[in-house]
Design a protein that fits this description.
Elements lengths: L1 E5 L10 H8 L3 E5 H7 L6 E5 L4 H13 L4 E5 L9 H8 L4 E4 L4 H9 L6 E5 L8 H9 L3 E5 L6 H9 L2 H4 L2 E6 L7 E5 L15 E6 L4 H8 L22 H11 L6 E5 L5 H10 L4 E6 L2 H14 L5 E5 L11 E6 L6 H11 E11 L2 H14 L3 E6 L2 E6 L2 E6 L3 E7 L1
């Protein structure tokens, strides 16, 4: 039997009587060196220290070795049910072979220091894990009373905080940083906003960040529209199976369609509304965007993102299939982001609606659609352009940067 004991912050004062009894009666106690030093297992127990690096990978083999001699106790920091090794251990050995004794999590400790309820608090961990999608963090923040972020190595905390603060909705949140909460040397640092938090003012073994919403969401959204360049992918609300034109592609397409200030623009395939929002930003208050979308879920999501951006008044979402739903109006520019099997028919209708000198641009992720679009440009006698874009984005890891590749995208355009 494996007994997983939650050691809380890592001092005997926070151990429950049940946890103390389990440790005192253990044949073997396994854990990280810091926890073992702080908890002081009895001398009669075999002490097995896990490596400081690769602990998650070593724990299974270590447990297998020790179980051959009898029951074993595994010490984990915080509570076993809160971002610990317990999930991995239980999945491998089976719940019937595991007993769990709860401990106090960092979320509970931080809430107690702030005299806050943690009933509706969401949590994200950056402790030994790569950064999740910013959109997922923002979504958790919106749907919760507060958000708590767990950090790993102290030298990475400042860069993680700067990354979180790059999102305006998080940057404006009330922020409290807790260092070594529940341990000697505990430090609580409060700031009126995450962007004002001095993340490098203290270091320690473990840091946790508490964020609470502040101000009206719409004011935060409007502020983000003043950024240079296109909005990041993480800004947009997303839904499964609703496509989104990615950040680099939006930027490239906009560069081909500009200038758009004051223009009427046609879009085929609203999707999540990412390109729709960018077109609405580009046309300005005197311009207009007509976007044709056949799927109700996508149309609803596009409207939501437009409302968040305060741009719903510049856009008409037409819930219909193309080319049938294309309005009989002149447009200076047109963009085809989704087309299905009717690509040539849609391109023909778009060219028919373009003003003289107007430009049509479209994106493709399949060679067949690209060939079909280029061939149709030839049939129409249009002077076409074609880019195949292999883009990558950088993510900082420690002191260096790693590149992560996006899927290649073809961008085709032609002028009337």
């Amino acid at each position: 039997m494996i007994i997983i004991v939650g050691a809380g912050p890592g001092t005997p004062a926070y151990l429950t009587p049940e946890a103390k009894s389990a440790i005192e009666n253990s044949r073997a106690v396994i854990g990280g060196g810091r926890i073992l030093d702080a908890i002081h297992p009895p001398e009669s127990a075999r002490r097995v220290e896990l490596p400081s690096n690769g602990m998650a990978g070593a724990v299974i083999q270590t447990l297998k070795n020790e179980l051959s001699e009898g029951d074993v106790t595994l010490l984990v920091s915080g509570d076993p049910g809160f971002y610990s090794l317990a999930k991995k251990v239980t999945a491998y050995f089976g719940s019937e072979n595991v007993s769990v004794i709860p401990g106090i999590s960092s979320l509970q400790l931080m809430a107690s220091r702030l005299r806050k309820s943690w009933a509706e608090v969401a949590a994200v961990t950056l402790h030994g894990r790569k950064r999740p999608c910013m959109f997922e963090i923002v979504k958790k923040m919106r749907n919760s009373s507060a958000l708590m972020v767990l950090f790993g190595a102290s030298e990475d905390v400042a860069s993680h905080v700067a990354w979180l603060a790059s999102e305006p909705e998080l940057a404006s949140a009330w922020a409290v940083m807790g260092w070594d909460v529940g341990l000697p040397g505990e430090k609580i640092i409060e700031s009126s906003s995450l962007s004002e938090l001095d993340a490098a003012s203290h270091t320690g073994r473990l840091a946790v960040l508490w964020l609470e919403k502040s101000g009206e969401p719409k004011a935060v959204e409007a502020e983000s529209l003043n950024r240079r360049g296109v909005l990041p992918d993480e800004w947009f609300e997303r839904r499964e199976r609703v496509p989104m034109t990615k950040e680099f592609t939006r930027s490239a397409v906009l560069s081909l369609l500009r200038p758009l200030e004051g223009a009427n623009v046609l879009e085929i395939g609203s999707g999540s509304g990412a390109m729709t929002v960018e077109l609405a930003r580009a046309v300005g208050p005197s311009g207009y965007v007509a976007s044709v979308e056949n799927f109700p879920a996508a149309a609803a999501l596009a409207r939501l993102n437009l409302e968040r951006a305060g741009l719903a008044g510049r856009v008409s979402i037409i819930e219909d299939s193309a080319p049938r739903g294309i309005p009989d109006s002149p447009f200076r520019a047109a963009f085809i982001g989704g087309h299905g099997e009717a690509l040539e028919d849609i391109m023909g209708e778009c060219f028919a609606r373009l003003e003289t000198g107007g430009r049509l641009a479209l994106t493709s992720i399949t060679p067949g659609a690209t060939s079909k679009a280029l061939a149709y440009m030839d049939v129409m006698g249009v002077s076409a352009g074609f880019w195949r874009v292999h883009s990558s984005f950088g993510r900082k890891v420690g002191a260096d940067w790693l590149l992560h590749g996006n899927n290649p995208v073809d961008i085709i355009w032609g002028d009337k």
